[in-house]
Write a structure and sequence with these properties.
Oligomer: single chain
Largest sheet: none
Order of helices and strands: HHHHH
Radius of gyration: 18 Å
Strand content: under 5%
Structural class: mainly alpha
Distance between the termini: 45 Å
Helix content: over 70%
Amino acid sequence: MVRRAGTLLIFAALAVALVVPIWLGGRHAVFPSFALPAPAYLSILALVLFGWAMRALKQWLLIERLGLTVGAWRNFAISLAVDFAFVATPGGVGGYAAGIWYVRGIGGSYAQATAISAADQVLDL
């Protein structure tokens, strides 16, 4: 029962996220984006995937520099989880917590996890 309610809430949130901007006048920005040619969408997708890969590489270099080891796919998953935590929380606060949590999960100390999280932000700056 709870699982069904969670799925229903996800679909409701997606519907609201699509309908409300259009309802508030955003149709002038949303509908023209459907007219983009397929190569434009593929280019955008390629750039997103490239950005994700480069962020994972940066994180892997920071993790390896501190003497920790992590597999490529796990590192990619950690990188995406941290990135989405920044996006999904107010002010991006969840990204810092997620970064520290996941580096602790691969065997890093609090000091190493905090250093990686701080260096990641400084390099983004």
